[in-house]
Amino acid sequence: MKKIAIIGAGNVGAHVASAIVARNLPAEILLVDKNADFETGQVLDLRDSMLFSPRTRVRGATFDDTPVNEADVFVLTAGAARQEEDSRLDLLERNMRILDSVRTSLGNIKREAVIIVVTNPVDIATQYVADTFGLPHGQVFGTGTVLDTARLRWRLAERLGRNVANAHGHVLGEHGDSSVIPWSWVSSREKFSCEEKKQLHEDVKKSGAKIIAGKGSTYFGIGSVVAELIDAVISDSRRLYPVSVPLHGEYGISGISVGVPCPVGECGVEKVVEMALEPEELSSLQNSAKILYELYRQIF
Question: Which domains does the chain have, with CATH numbers?
Answer without folding.
Answer: 2-142 (3.40.50.720), 146-299 (3.90.110.10)
